Amino acid sequence: MLSYMMMRLVSWPAPQVAGLILKSKTLRHFFCGCLMLLLLTFFAAGPAYAAERVRAGVSDLTAVYIFNFIRFTDWPENSLAKDAAPDKDSVLINVLHNQKIHDTLKRIIAKPAAQKLGLALQSCNQTSCIQNSSVLFIGESDRGHFSQLLKLVEGSPVLTISDVPGFAEQGGMVEIKYHNEKLTFVVNLQAVNRAGLYISAQLLQLGEIVGRDNE
Amino acid sequence: MEAITSRWTRMIKLVLPVMAAGLSSIPVMAAERYSPDDLLSMNIEDLVNVKVTTLSKREETYMSTAGAVFVITNDDIRRSGVRSIPDALRLAPGLQVSQTNSNQFQIGIRGQTDFWTDLLLVMVDGRPVYNTTFSGVWWVAQNYPLEEIERIEVVRGPGGAIWGSNAVNGVINIITKNAGATQGLRVTAGTGTEETGFGNIRYGASIGKLDYRLYAMRETRDGGLSLNGITDAYDFRRMKQQGFRLDWQADATTNISLHGDAYQIHSGQLGYWMPNPTPLNFINLSNSDNGYSGKNLVLRMEKELTSNIAFKGQLFYDQYKVHTRIIREKKESFDGDFQLDFSDVLNQNISIGTNLRGIRSHFDSTPQFQMPSRSTSLASFFVNDELSLFDGKFRIIGGVKMEKNSYTKWESQPSIRAIASDDNWAIWASASKSVRTPNDLENGLVWNRKASGCWTSPVTRVACLVRQIGDGRAQTEKVKTYEIGARVRPTSKSLIEVTAFKTIYKGVLDTWQDRNLANPLIPQAIVPEYLTNVLNGKGDGIEANFRIEASEGLTFKGSYTYLHQNYVDYPVADGETIWTVRSNREQDPKSRFHAGVSWNPIKEIEFDANLYFNGPFRDNNVTGHHRLDVRVAYKPVEELEISFVGQDLMNLKHRENEDNSMQYSSLVQQRWYAQATYSYD
């Protein structure tokens, strides 16, 4: 692949550039010299392939994703809980079936950056508790039963997130999925709109969308 | 779905051992794995690319830009050990940076670089800092705590279709960090042989969704050496600057920022002075003090109106004062800039925008320098359309900007670009028309100057007075530029770019001495020198750069620039303009290169070396110049960094540029300094 790229680089611009733009002989000389230099750097670049890449833990990254999804979501007015401080909206996150993500989120919401969003965290299976939350994360170990949970919050402004494959296709709002060595996400826009939520385009443009209104 | 599930499981299997290894051998693995804090500090755009680390959003944008762009990052600046914004620009390919003396810099791209460089648009956080007085930049007044600069984006080539006139040969945008990224206390201080004392302090915090930072900086730079190489030159610089930035995420779709700065600068200058500029008067060569001060306030708002319409608006007020023995100016600008971006409309991204600026300038005339005080204005509109084909792999971008200032009719600046790109390669081509519009000096200047080579000899004094006159005869300079470029990422940690360009200038603005006896000034023994279009010209060349992260902690980078220029003295062809041709051709080096290495032998130690070369130029006293800068830094604990820097290590002293009509040159000395930075969140 390396040499293929190089061929493109060398064979494509050189004749055109030389012909079109560079009339002087010295200039062409420099240009060729420069390409030689590039060729050398290509070989020098070889070992970089072997370099170990920086990775992130899956639950760490998932937890940070959840935090970011909250940042880029607007809830309808008066829909957020006001329990802790009556003058301040609070986003209540309910994490089910994934202790690691729960623990990481717990650390995250204690940080100053998260405190200004007014986040609260729980892990609670009771119906009233689930319906009362603003964000519901459903862990993968619950993959068989997530549709029941979704029914509980249908039509309410609860942002549902999961890493269960096919979650967004089957009525969930945001599915975090592993693809090509990275975590991406799928947003079911219909489900989001039905719940009266608004997700910023800045976030949407980074993910895959299913259930656009015009589809 | 089956496939996805199995991939998911496979991934967990793959990741778990990595995580376990991370725990067992923390010192080695710590750098290999992002902590939740690392991840939290990233933008969402970056997060979607974590793990594979092929491309972040910014790299993706970078790869798919149909133009010659280069980004100098905060890390590049810090590790290079430079102490000023002009010096930091030496890190970019294609930039011609030279220093006349300790406080005066000349910066240009693709030619015509001198103090009066008039083909660049320079901005700080979107606020233009080039002035409409001479279409150039008072670089001595452009400062910011380098630690708070997020990046400097350099666009080589015309940006007129979006940015407007004077973005003929390039755009430099200095972007400061978001207040949210500069929380806590940071103190930097240092001292050295030339940078005798410098320091800055920043404090950042947040109130709800509002982040803010405050900073103050102070620097003292010693003068260089006089050309005799023995005595100190009177070209010191002392500066102070204070500022703030607020960033407020009002809601999920609205970002508002407000920032402002104020600065006070004093510098020394050796120059001549004509207290009574008549042909029979003597000229006084002496030291004098210059003062530069200014303040600005910028309000910016970005809002997503709907999922595919975004609004950007900016209002700013800028004021500066220049007080030298000869020039005394106060300038105020009021500016409004509004833009709408429509994305994904029939495979197109369309942007439209408008800019309105009111400028008030006040001059206190001196016997040598007279300019009228007045109010001027600038209005422009632009539209830019990006058509995306083959899933974004091929794009065509067309745009045009219409602009009018108080001295011109409506000028149009169209450009068309095409690019084929993927994550790992891109080839692009562009053709643009841009303009350099007449400025204030060209419309009202009367400047009595000493003829070159003229001293106080009673014999020659008659010919000693040249009167530079801007009588409005200057017309817009029109420029056509053709570019072609390629970039490739052979691995995820390397990048190579090559650009070739050709620029055709019509009506280059410079000076013309009218020696015709019919001119009424000639019988008074004054040589009239008009600011007007005197040359046509061509410039072509190539720019290439590379960056390779060879291993964890070892990075190589470098660039090479070749420039060839040719000017003819047309439309005005006489014995005088041929000198302008010569100086234009000779004021830029033919070749330039930069080669740098960044190395961390262990995690706590950083070593950097940067070698810069400016090729031979000028027929007079200035030749080519190698500059070697070396920096070693030690981080005993996370909060503290101590560094030692040596600059210009290959010469004890050298002359980097000739005298110019503003200031005399001095010798730049070898310099050493030590610096400590303490930060606490």
Write up this protein:
The complex is a heterodimer of chains A (215) and B (681). With 215 residues, chain A is an alpha/beta fold. Chain A is built from ten helices and ten strands. Mean pLDDT of chain A is 72; it is low at 1-53. In chain A, helix 4 crosses helix 5 (99-109). The radius of gyration of chain A is 25 Å and the shape is globular. In chain A, the strands form two sheets. Chain A has a seven-stranded mixed beta sheet with strand order 4-3-5-6-7-8-10. A two-stranded antiparallel ribbon of chain A has the order 2-9. Chain A has a single domain (2-210), classed as Response regulator (Rossmann fold), CATH 3.40.50. With 681 residues, chain B is mainly beta. Chain B has a single domain (40-680), classed as Maltoporin, Chain A (Beta Barrel). Helix content of chain B is 10%, strand content 55%. Chain B is built from nine helices and 35 strands. In chain B, the strands form four sheets. Chain B has a 22-stranded antiparallel barrel. A five-stranded mixed beta sheet of chain B has the order 2-7-8-5-6. Chain B has a two-stranded antiparallel sheet with strand order 3-4. In chain B, strand 10 and strand 11 (210-221) form a beta hairpin. The longest helix of chain B has 23 residues, at 2-24. Residues 1-32 and 51-57 of chain B have low confidence and may be disordered. Chains A and B meet through helix 1, helix 2, helix 3, strand 1 and helix 4 of A and helix 1, strand 1, helix 3, helix 4 and strand 25 of B. Chain B: Its main location: membrane. Chain B: Residues 1-30 form the signal peptide. Chain B: Belongs to the TonB-dependent receptor family.
